[in-house]
Amino acid sequence: EIAQSCVEKILLKVIDGVHAGKKQKYSWLTPKRIAEYYAQSMCYVTITWIRSGMTASARELTEIYQYIIKRSMEDVIQEL
After folding, report:
1. Which band of pLDDT confidence, cut at 50, 70 and 90, is reported for residue 23?
2. Distance from C-alpha of 31 to C-alpha of 43, rounded to nearest angstrom
3. I need a labelling partner for 16 at 20 to 30 A (CA). Which of 23, 31, 38, 72 fits?
């Protein structure tokens, strides 16, 4: 929870900087919710990696995470 909160704060600063002055397309999809979503995702991947014995390198884990977030779920499933 501590790690997720810290990551969320950093992401929220980045999102607020990019989002400043822009109108939201969806009222429910706030910068805070976006930061929460990605912080949870990043922390899940990192904690799962640690619990599994860190068998992949940090570089490989970064590549895997980037692969997942840049594609739709359908694309990831089809490319397995």
Report:
1. confident
2. 18
3. 72
- Statement: residue 19 has pLDDT above 90: no
Write the single-letter amino acid at 73: M
Angle between helices 31-51 and 2-19 in degrees, nearest 10: 140
pTM to 2 decimal places: 0.83
Q: Which of 29, 33, 43 is nearest to 12 (CA)?
A: 33
Integer-rounded Cα Rg, in Å, for the chain is 15
Q: Are 11 and 39 in contact (CB under 8 A)?
A: yes
Asked if 19 and 26 touch (Cβ cutoff 8 Å), the reply is no
